[in-house]
Amino acid sequence: MFFKTIDFSKFSSIKVGVPIEVLMLERGDEVPTDRMIIGHANNLLVSPTPPALMMLSKDFSFMELANDMLTVGCATPTGKLLSFAKKNDLQGFEFISKLPGSIGGMLAMNAGVKSYEIFNILDAIKIDAVWVKKENIEHGYRFAMLGGVATEVRFKTTKGFSLDLLDELVNLRSNQPKTASAGSAFKNPEGDYAGRLIEEVELKGVSKGAMEWSEVHANFLVNHGGGTFEEAKYLIDLAKEKVFKKFGIELLEEVQLL
Ligand SMILES: Cc1cc2nc3c(=O)[nH]c(=O)nc-3n(C[C@H](O)[C@H](O)[C@H](O)COP(=O)(O)OP(=O)(O)OC[C@H]3O[C@@H](n4cnc5c(N)ncnc54)[C@H](O)[C@@H]3O)c2cc1C
pLDDT confidence of 176, banded at 50, 70, 90? Predict the structure, then answer.
């Protein structure tokens, strides 16, 4: 293991944060229990004083296909898995397009689009060096109780990558802002949309410093350049407060505040 200084104002997708020393795990290392594991910071809002952090090094970026079983290391970027699935004509991976991050982050978030989620297609995850079958991991909409550090995931594969489905899902994304963000800020409450609620309380387009509830999609908190954790937190708290006051609905963050 070794330390690496990561500047979260550059590394994170929302471009908020400061340089932080992060412990990089290598193959064979014992995983510390007093540090939080992060992936590629596409779903994180990192404060200037986060908990001690660790990350998987490139040792965990790999893909192996043998006898219809695909094993993927958790530091693998999602784009690489998508390209691999396309090239090898593997079914079920189409939704990964436009889901930025690492495979580890996808697993912990049970990331997905509409009814397509990573847990639908996986077989087992290696957590703290032990393979755990999907059935034994509690999971649901944008969460999975991994209870440790995921280093590898296994998929039983079937042939038939669908270019039509890929096109359909890419088009679905055309309404998302291109400005720096961490994707959806809030989870959709059951039967409703966080974006709709944020619009209803007239926060769409409202900004604090460089941070803004996007004009393009109200549930995206975007950074126009140089935005801070405090500005982002202010807007998140404001949305929660206003939505609760008007609708009695408690918005839950999808983006993780560290
Ligand atoms: C423009 C944009 C659009 C997006 N659209 C979507 C979308 O449509 N659907 C969707 O679901 N998400 C979406 N996201 C969010 C993001 O793509 C996913 O949450 C992604 O899976 C995060 O991966 P990451 O590697 O960046 O994880 P991080 O953001 O670094 O971490 C997320 C969580 O995963 C945990 N984690 C990371 N690695 C591991 C590991 N190895 N073991 C255990 N826990 C781990 C962390 O502790 C943290 O809790 C979007 C983000 C952006 C920027």
Answer: confident
**111 CA distance to ligand 1 middle (Å):** 7
What are 209-241's pLDDT values in tens digits?
999 999 999 999 999 999 999 999 999 999 999
Paired tokens of 41: 């910071």
Indicate the residue type of 209: G
Please choose from 22, 38, 56, 255 the residue to mutate so as to test ligand 1's pocket, defined by most ligand atoms within 8 A of CB: 38
Q: Is the CB of 219 under 6 A from ligand 1?
A: no
Could you report the per-residue pLDDT of 100-119, keeping only the tens digit for each?
Answer: 999 999 999 999 998 899 99
Report pLDDT for 18. Answer: 96
Q: How many CA atoms lie within 13 A of 126 on its CB side?
A: 12
Q: Is the pTM of this model over 0.90?
A: yes
Write the CA distances from 151 to 56, 59, 83, 167, 211, integer angstroms.
8, 10, 20, 30, 34
CB 204 within 8 A of CB 219: no
Q: What is the pLDDT of residue 53?
A: 98
